[in-house]
Amino acid sequence: MDAAAAISELVIANRVLAHLKLVDSFGHVSARNPENPQRYFLSRSRAPGLVTKDDILEFDLESNAVDARGLRPYAERFIHGCVYRARPDVMAVCHNHAHGLLPLAVTKTAMRPAIHSAAVIGQQVPVWDIRDEFGDTDMLVRSNEMGNSLARAVGAGTAALMRGHGSVVAANSVQDAVFATYYLQLNAEVVIKAMSMGLEITYLSPGETEKSAEVHRQPFSRGRAWEEWCAQAGVAGIDAE
After folding, report:
1. What are the structural domains, with CATH classification, of the chain?
2. Residue 154 burial by Cβ neighbours in a 10 Å radius (0-12, 13-18, 19+)
3. N- to C-terminal Cα distance for the chain?
4. What pLDDT digit, counting tens, does each position of 198-225 carry?
5. H helices of the chain, where?
């Protein structure tokens, strides 16, 4: 995949995430530049469901725009740059406020996978609390210092919840990032429902998590979901404008 193809896929991912209601007017997804791993692509500050190719900007890993073209970047772009800098294996990052997982994001209890398709989120999703290091803030990740703290919480894993805010997902492709974001929310909804019923939850074992994640990361599995979501969002088979 070259840079042009990565930008096209990134635009489509914005539309898919908006269609699936994993992002609302806020939230964002980025892709590492496949031609220059020291840079990444991210939209200007705009609602994901409206993003076009013309909105995509390129940033260095300090989250400085290479050429802002007079456009305003997202305030929380540091989430992306810091994760990419900490994790050379990561090729896509999604920050979202998916409503289904917010009840767990107001706790300090790590999420664990309870359904097999959610194995891609890893054995444990920690809750990062911005207040622990930075005191009272507006809850936004506005600096590399804050982004580095969040990246440390993600560690070698796939995701972290952000206390009172949402989540961040790190993946090895844009499609994997969308897939993991979707099942992170679905897993949260299942766990919350079981808790509300007063039922004991049986989580996946480490072995089940590893084996199930391997299956769902395969192109035939992830690709089937991606194809359907693109069709539902009206972007199937098109080069997003």
Report:
1. 3-232 (3.40.225.10)
2. buried
3. 18
4. 999 999 999 999 999 999 888 888 889 9
5. 3-19, 78-86, 102-105, 130-134, 144-154, 174-196, 206-216, 219-232
Q: Which of 120, 101, 124 is nearest to 170 (CA)?
A: 120
- The pTM assigned to this predicted structure is 0.94
What tokens does 165 get? 């805010």
How does pLDDT run across 108-117, given as a tens digit for each residue?
A: 889 999 999 9
Convert 29-64 to b/e letters by CB count within 10 Å (16 or more is b). Answer: bbbbbeeeeebbbbbbbbebbebeeebbbbbbbebe
Return the DSSP state at 117.
G
145 is catalytic: no
Q: Which of 58, 76, 145, 208 is catalytic?
A: 76
Calpha distance 85→78 (Å, rounded): 10
Tokens encoding 47: 């609602």
